[in-house]
Amino acid sequence: MALPAFRFKKFEVVQEGAAHPVGTDAVLLGAWADISGAQQFLDIGAGTGVVSLMIAQRLAETCRHWRGCGVEIHASSAALARQNYQACPWAAQLELRECAVQLLDGCPAGHFDLIVSNPPFFSETTQSPDAARSLGRHSATLSPVELLRAVKKWMSPEGRFCVVLPAMEGYRLCELAVPMGLYWTQLVEVYGKADKPLERLLLQFERNPYPVRRDKIVLQEHGQRSEAFRALTKDFYLAD
Question: What is the pTM for the complete model shown?
Answer without folding.
Answer: 0.91
